[in-house]
Specification:
The complex is a heterodimer. Chain A is mostly helical. Chain A has 10 helices and no strands. In chain A, helix 2 packs antiparallel against helix 7 and helix 7 runs antiparallel to helix 10. Chain B has a two-stranded antiparallel sheet. In chain B, a hairpin with a 2-residue loop joins strand 1 and strand 2. In chain B, helix 9 packs across helix 11, helix 10 packs antiparallel against helix 11 and helix 13 runs antiparallel to helix 14. The longest helix of chain B has 35 residues. The chains are: A mainly alpha, B mainly alpha. At the A-B interface, helix 1, helix 2, helix 3, helix 4 and helix 5 of A face helix 4, helix 6, helix 7, helix 8 and helix 9 of B.
Chain lengths: 314, 363
């Protein structure tokens, strides 16, 4: 597809002026559309900065009674990252397994439909996951948490008292389900790009299927898998509704995953408080949104960068 | 000479075939595992979850140990991994099935003709105090429809034109490379940040109390544009250059070539991508919560006043609590069922469009 023949240069052909006018208008429109998208992204950063800036110097009531903005945002950022990391701990091994099942284990005809099934997982709206997590999943896992609190309390993650199931661990589980499709989709793509010859050479030398995957697929796919993880992490960081509905948010900084006092996340905190906020409190919430934007932008940027670098090498 | 010959003859004969488990071995172990799981469930009196966990453990361990005894370590590892890989897939299906099941079983009770034709004006608890009509989701349906349609109207032209720029005009120059990268990064923008962007922009222009459906559309467009650009770009790249060259050879200018030849060829794929993008944003909640607000009246005007949407309706119904929490939760499940049906239908339409118009390039 690289043998593109350039269209004849305008000056080389005796065209009527309306032709050239149409061409320049159309290419102008296309360029403008491209610039619009870049402007939109820049606009997101700029307007958040304008509206969030007043919060930097705010104290007292406008940062919800905290000393300054850092004290207010830090616990939320902690909760955001904790929830996202929990989600990745659940989702990453699952996603690699599913991607392998689709790319290297399932018969080709079945594989397409298995892929559809995983895509359906991404189609369910986040608010529905939130509803499910809050009403169904949280009561369901409560007995498990009680057991963990009774028997595993030598680990700092499982400290009693356990009074409800709406904890950061449940939120992490729901986030894992939501991040799963994107990680799976990218891993699947990368696994399928392994050169067929490498795989067949490994099999011809007598390797079992797993040995073949370990020797040819994994080394080839490493950067792709890492970038998939980063993008999944980005998704989990920014997810709002599922956390806002599932988590009984408290804004505590704790590594106790099942206790009564739970952290909150930036996105959930904005969703929960925005309706009641006014004046300078809105600036504070927008500033926390800016922090979330910067963090998730950095994670996505890193993910895409790793992916792009991997592509160049291969 | 004869010495070496004798040595080779003395070597113990290596069997050409290694012992293997029978083909039905996994099936056999699965049946035994299910039986053991069932037995444990009956004896201990626990539920379906315990059965599947016990059966799964027996299956994975049983098959691996059997393979270890008969086939050796390497084959056993292979069988273990195969079971684990398929287990991950089954585990991932559990939430999908569970969510679908819960939404249908809890949501169908709320559905009725009134549910679709009434809004929530004056509704406290079961019915409207004045008219006696039961509450419904008309206002949320209208809002979702209007806001999503407006977002589509904004983002599809911009997205498609940007993709045309990338494929037809950009030709890997600096701007188009930066744009491709930024579009990729943009797909990862948290939806709530898009909502905050629309809020900041519009309140700076129209004052701090401004809320409207249009703001929601603007936020959704930010989320939708990158998806449309990616889908269109992929499809335009699939259009064979021969078609373009044939058109140029007939003296057709470039812009008419794009409009009359390239876009129609790629139409199916673009339609699929746009439909998937609509499905993706139709379920978005966070940005609408911030800029479109929540209300009980049916509002057909996207440019003024608050607008309810299905996702926000679900969220606010569940989180309200109080005296009428039970009936509100039932309505939330009903709305969730409607929303899931809408989104799944859009996905199905996208797949069908993709099938019908699948590119006939034959490479």
């Amino acid at each position: 597809m690289t043998t593109t023949t350039e269209p004849p240069a305008p000056e080389a052909e005796p065209r009527t002026s309306s032709h050239r006018l149409g061409d320049s208008v159309f290419s102008g429109l296309a360029t403008a559309a491209g610039l619009t998208i870049m402007l939109a992204l820049a606009g997101v950063a700029i307007f958040l900065l304008i509206e969030g800036a007043p919060a930097i110097t705010a104290t007292g009531e406008s940062v919800y009674g905290e000393d300054n903005i850092v004290v207010y945002v830090w616990p939320l950022l902690y909760g955001t990252i904790l929830a996202a990391i929990l989600a990745m701990i659940f989702a990453a091994p699952l996603a690699i397994g599913i991607a392998l099942a689709i790319s290297h284990y399932a018969p080709r005809r079945v594989a397409t439909y298995l892929g559809y099934a995983i895509d359906l997982l991404a189609a369910v709206p986040s608010v529905v996951y939130g509803l499910w997590g809050r009403v169904v999943l949280a009561p369901l896992v409560l007995p498990l948490y009680v057991w963990l609190g009774d028997h595993m309390s030598w680990l700092p993650f499982f400290q009693p008292p356990v009074t409800h199931g709406r904890t950061i661990l449940t939120a992490g589980l729901v986030l894992a389900v939501m991040a799963l499709p994107i990680i799976t989709a990218i891993c699947r793509e990368v696994f399928l790009q392994t050169p067929r010859m490498h795989e067949e050479a490994a099999l011809a030398l007598g390797a079992t299927r797993w040995e073949m995957i370990r020797m040819t697929v994994f080394p080839y796919a490493r950067s792709g898998v890492i970038s998939a993880m980063m993008l999944g992490l980005g998704r989990a960081l920014g997810e709002t509704m599922a956390v806002a509905m599932v988590l009984s948010a408290g804004g505590f900084v704790t590594i106790n995953l099942i206790g009564t006092d739970q952290p909150s996340t930036i996105a959930a905190n904005i969703a929960l408080n925005f309706g009641n906020a006014s004046g300078s409190k809105i600036n504070t919430l927008i500033f926390s949104g800016l922090v979330l934007f910067v963090v998730s932008f950095a994670v996505n940027f890193a993910g895409r960068w790793i992916a792009a670098r991997g592509e160049v090498k291969s | 000479m004869s010495d070496t010959l004798q040595k080779t003859e003395q070597r113990p004969s290596v069997p050409l075939r290694t012992p293997q488990l029978p083909r039905i071995a996994p099936l056999l172990v699965a049946v035994i595992a299910l039986a053991v799981g069932g037995l444990v469930t009956v004896v201990a009196g626990s539920g379906l979850v315990a059965l599947s966990v016990v059966a799964w453990l027996v299956f994975v361990i049983g098959l691996s140990v059997w393979a270890l005894a008969v086939e050796g370590r390497r084959k056993a590892t292979d069988r273990l991994i195969t079971s684990l890989v398929w287990s991950t897939f089954v585990i991932a299906m559990v939430p999908l099935v569970a969510v679908t099941w819960e939404v249908i079983s809890k949501g169908h009770a709320a559905l009725s003709a009134d549910f679709f034709t009434n809004d929530m004006v004056g509704v406290l608890g079961e019915t409207n105090r004045l008219t006696g009509d039961p509450g419904g989701i008309k206002h949320a349906l209208v809002g979702t429809l209007m806001i999503t349609a407006t977002a589509t109207l904004i983002s599809v032209p911009v997205g498609v034109m940007a993709a045309i720029y990338l494929v037809e005009y950009g030709k890997k120059n600096r701007l188009s490379r930066v744009l491709t990268f930024l579009v990729d990064v943009m797909t990862g923008i948290p939806s709530i940040v898009a909502g905050l962007f629309a809020f900041s922009l519009l309140t700076l222009m129209f004052g701090p109390a401004y809320r409207s459906g249009f703001g929601g559309s603007l936020a959704l467009s930010v989320l939708m544009m990158p998806i449309v650009v990616r889908a269109t770009e992929e499809m335009l790249k699939l259009v064979p250059d021969e078609l373009r060259e044939a058109s140029y050879a007939l003296g057709v200018p470039k812009w008419r070539t794009i409009v009359k030849v390239v876009l129609p060829t790629a139409f199916g794929g673009i339609a699929t991508g746009v439909t998937l993008a609509i499905a993706r944003v139709a379920g978005e909640t966070a940005p609408l919560l911030i800029i479109a607000g929540s209300t009980t009246v049916t509002n057909w005007n996207v440019f003024s006043d608050r607008m309810m949407t299905l996702p926000v309706f679900i969220y606010s119904s569940v989180t309200q609590g109080g005296k009428y929490a039970a009936i509100q939760e039932e309505r939330a499940w009903g709305a969730a069922l409607v929303l899931v049906v809408i989104v799944m239908t859009l996905n199905l339409i996208a797949r069908l469009l993709g099938k019908i118009f699948s590119p006939k390039t034959g490479r």
